[in-house]
Design brief:
By secondary structure, this protein is mainly beta. The chain contains one helix and ten strands. It has a four-stranded antiparallel beta sheet, covered by helices on one side. Strands 3-10 form a two-stranded antiparallel ribbon. It has a two-stranded antiparallel ribbon with strand order 4-9.
Length: about 130
């Protein structure tokens, strides 16, 4: 037996993600990691995501969130953390692929080297159906 949620409930879940990422005085952030090492920290806009539609929220990318001087370490990014402004982790993902690879997050360049500019040009979160 599988459990499913109606669209109204999924929108409530998605809204709680927005509220959590935007928590704290400053903007939330997306932290890209290779193992436990931080590769890039990207400050997000506030609000970080637009309003939910059908349980899906889309990252606000105007202006484009970026880390313009990534730590980098020439290791392949294998996970991400979306955090609030205090560093509290809201959600994580480990399916990182190249553009078109279908990952939770698709990167145009991986590994990321020190000094690279890393931008989030699109990202969506889907609450469990």
């Amino acid at each position: 037996m599988s459990i499913s949620h109606n669209v109204d409930q999924r929108n409530v879940f998605a809204t709680s993600i927005i509220t959590a990422v935007d928590g704290g005085a400053g903007a939330g952030k997306c932290v890209l990691k290779a193992g436990t090492s931080v590769v890039a920290t990207i400050p997000l806009n506030k609000p970080s995501f637009g309003a939910p539609a059908a349980g899906i929220i889309t990252l606000v990318v105007s202006p484009v969130p970026e880390d313009d001087d990534a730590v980098g370490n020439a290791s392949v990014v294998d996970s991400m953390e979306f955090q609030d402004s205090t560093g509290k982790v809201v959600f994580t993902g480990a399916n990182i692929t190249a553009v078109g690879g279908g990952g939770d997050l698709e990167l145009s360049k991986n590994p990321i080297a020190a000094g690279d500019i890393v931008q989030l040009t699109s990202f969506s979160y889907q609450a469990s159906p």
